[in-house]
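Need a sequence for this fold. Nothing fancy.
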């Protein structure tokens, strides 16, 4: 009876997720020590078209990419922060939009030269497409220009 519940009506063995170590089996009388815990269930991994270049940096082949290598890049938050820090140094601490000095680090934001959407770089976080700007008012006012 208990085995029938675990297997299911259609006979699809392993269709339920494996029990965690600290989770008792919900089948009456099984408790923490039961054969259900050792099921052969393996969750299916979603295949991604993005390939990992290094931790925090992914890329995808795109025939419409703006760069000759044919890839678009996506950076994690920490990798993007590293790029912004380098851009601040390259720009001598000046905002790329208003050209005024950046005095508050919490008010600095990455800005995509070719916008992420609207056809531009289409989420290309390549360092050559990033500039450091004031979050307010420069980046907020620039926003996403649709035309």
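Here you go.
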């Amino acid at each position: 009876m208990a085995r029938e519940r675990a297997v299911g009506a259609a006979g699809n063995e392993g269709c339920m997720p494996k029990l965690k170590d600290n989770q008792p089996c919900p089948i009456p009388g099984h408790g923490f020590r039961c054969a259900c815990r050792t099921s052969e269930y393996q969750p299916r991994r979603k295949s991604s078209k993005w390939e990992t270049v290094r931790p925090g940096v992914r890329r995808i082949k795109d025939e419409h990419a703006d760069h000759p290598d044919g890839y678009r890049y996506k950076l994690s938050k920490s990798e993007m922060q590293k790029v912004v820090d380098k851009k601040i140094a390259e720009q001598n601490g000046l905002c790329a939009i208003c050209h005024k000095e950046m005095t508050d680090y919490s008010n600095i934001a990455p800005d995509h030269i070719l916008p992420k959407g609207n056809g531009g770089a289409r989420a290309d976080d390549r360092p050559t497409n990033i500039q450091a700007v004031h979050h307010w008012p420069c980046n907020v006012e620039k926003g996403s220009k649709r035309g």
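For context: The chain has two domains: 1-44, 51-142.
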